[in-house]
Amino acid sequence: MGLPGSGRLVICGFGLIGGSIAAGVRETGMAGTLIGVDADPAVLDEARRAGLLDGAGWPHDLGPDDLVLIAVPTLSVASILETLWDGERGLLAGGAVVSDVASVKQPVLDAALAICGRLPANLVPGHPIAGSERSGVGAARADLFRDHRVILTPVAETAPAARQRVAELWQGLGAEVVDMAVDDHDRVLAMTSHLPHLLAFALVDTLGRVPEHEAVFRFAAGGFRDFTRIASSDPVMWSDIFTANAAAVGQVLDRLDAELAELRGLLEAGDRDGLRTIFARAKALRDAHVQTRHGNDHE
Amino acid sequence: MGLPGSGRLVICGFGLIGGSIAAGVRETGMAGTLIGVDADPAVLDEARRAGLLDGAGWPHDLGPDDLVLIAVPTLSVASILETLWDGERGLLAGGAVVSDVASVKQPVLDAALAICGRLPANLVPGHPIAGSERSGVGAARADLFRDHRVILTPVAETAPAARQRVAELWQGLGAEVVDMAVDDHDRVLAMTSHLPHLLAFALVDTLGRVPEHEAVFRFAAGGFRDFTRIASSDPVMWSDIFTANAAAVGQVLDRLDAELAELRGLLEAGDRDGLRTIFARAKALRDAHVQTRHGNDHE
After folding, report:
1. pLDDT reported for residue A67
2. What is the C-alpha separation between A85 and A16, in angstroms, rounded?
């Protein structure tokens, strides 16, 4: 399978996601030239040593056969779009297809509209539902996206051919591509991903503040380890996500607060049957919906 | 290694924990006779077919060489103690060593005091920090306790020889035995185990109540699956635990509520640096304390 368009794949931001895209392109034998862009020269050196780069730095002649993937933290996408749109190189004007991997989509569209004055037809917002609590190109895996979903959020302005180019890249890496409306994406991800991360960070930080925190962590077992795995995620990536999706996260946090208040009432009343009813409902939901997932999912 | 005391091991409650103790005794070649007691005859049949039983039902001649392990949900321990203490058989009078595996220890001691009028010297409260979101003897594993901690909470009345017998059983199954004060145990477990379970149940039930819950569960990835694994735990066991440890859970829930309120304030203020500071602190804590745990811990 050829790299869609047979042109260059320019990956801006060579962290876990960018590095895994490059590793997947290499492993699947998709032809094409891999170009890396990263603010940190040491990252590009590491990627080059791992065999993931054919070149580094923005090409000056980006054209319609090239594909640019912006794989930086959510709130840094705007500065990359500025570089591409109207910097000294004016790179987006050449017609390259541009996509991103940010976990919140509305701010990307807002930034594009503000910077470009319109939503460019060759910009295809995307979000792979895959990841790890580990970060950096050193954690990259060629199979990170295999059997995972990638959500694209094309808008009315998006050129179907541009969307297709991006979809084919992800499908070549083994992912299933699904289209969603921007606000649906941001609201659903607030529930399935952002709120669990907030709770995991909150729980670990809460326990770190109790006087007996040494004993607490010493007696934590597997349930705690799995529950808090996502609290080892990258703080920069996640502070960006919560800042970018604060409203949707706040809404589902309201719902969770109400549920916790209900549970607290049952606790204080010693209402064992009431607790059991809620626990049984949650167990049935999870057993029905979550156990059937693929084996190596991370986000 | 012989079964401590070379007498019978009577396991009352043949679920995940009771069954795993029996399987471990078989696999490690500890000698001794395994007797099962369970309210459900089908459970004993399953245990017998799995080769985990030499006999069933309370022996009428329990004596000082016998060891009784009560492995029923926390709030059912009292009724077993009643049977042992003063039922038609008066079994505890024979001097058998009795232990339990309940996740909350104060109610076990309260029940013993109420039923026996004093804390019996041959009663050794215990709690293995191991388990699974799966339940029942069908989920039993001989290695469930290997490299895990077992907390014993002996009191002033507890005979050292009785404690030693119980400790040797667990050590024979590969566990590390640690003594703790009862209230320390219940407070620490409220933080490391009970509160995470409450949050997992609460999150899944919250998301089950939103109108778009089908889409929500469809797009849940690995972070969500790991975070909510413990929401698939047994509702009866956990409604008992929360009823039994409501005060300690309420106290740490207060702390978590304060932390969530702080995070919500940062969200609403768009304070990316404030969020990053908390996330980085949580990540550092978890990376320092949790990553070094054993590979197959569950609770």
Report:
1. 95
2. 25
Query: How far is the C-alpha of B299 from the C-alpha of B128, rounded, in Å?
Result: 8
Chain A stretch 224-243, residues whose beta carbon is closer than 8 A to a beta carbon of chain B: 224-236, 238-240, 242-243
Examine domains B4-180 and B185-289 and report if their fold is the same: no
Please state which CATH number belongs to domain B185-289.
1.10.3660.10
Is B81 in the A-facing interface, judged by CB distances under 8 Å?
A: no
Is B187 at the interface with chain A, CB within 8 A? yes
Question: Residue A290 is nearest to which of B215, B217, B287, comparing CB atoms?
Answer: B217
Residues 89-128 of A with CB under 8 A from B: none
pLDDT in tens, B67-78: 999 999 999 999
Of B232, B267, B290, the CB nearest to A246: B267
Verify whether the Cβ–Cβ distance B246 to A282 is below 8 Å. Answer: no
Helix A246-269 to helix A195-209 angle (10° resolution) is: 60
pLDDT mean over B56-70: 92
Q: Domain limits of chain B?
A: 4-180, 185-289
CB-closest option in B187, B223, B287 to A299: B223
Chain A environment of B204 (Cβ under 8 Å):
282-283, 285-286
At residue B5 the predicted structure's pLDDT band, cuts being 50, 70 and 90, is low
Q: What is the pLDDT of residue A89?
A: 56
Residue A197's closest CA among B270, B220, B192? B220
Determine the distance in angstroms separating the CA of A147 from the nearest CA of chain B, rounded to an integer.
11
Selecting from A203, A238, A275 the residue whose C-beta is nearest the C-beta of B199 gives A203
Task: Classify the C-alpha dihedral B257-B185-B292-B135 as positive or negative.
Answer: negative
- Collect all residues of chain A within an 8 Å Cβ-Cβ radius of residue B187: 212
Residue with tokens 């979550």: A290
Q: What type of residue is A199?
A: L
pLDDT digits (tens, 9 = 90+) for A203-242: 999 999 999 888 888 888 778 888 899 999 999 999 999 9
CA–CA gap between residue B120 and residue B159 (Å, rounded):
9
Query: B165 is written with which tokens?
Result: 């017998």
CA dihedral A123, A127, A128, A132 (to 10 degrees): 130
What CATH architecture applies to the domain B4-180?
3-Layer(aba) Sandwich (3.40)
CA distance A46 to A41: 9
Mean local confidence (pLDDT), A44-65:
93
A30 pLDDT higher than 70: yes
In this predicted structure, what is the pLDDT of residue B153? Answer: 98
Q: How far is A281 from chain B (nearest CA, A)?
A: 7
Rg, chain B, Cα only: 21
For chain B, say whether A290 makes contact (Cβ under 8 Å): yes
Residue B157 pLDDT > 80: yes
Cβ of A130 within 8 Å of Cβ of B272? The answer is no
B90 Cβ neighbours under 8 A, 6+ residues apart: none
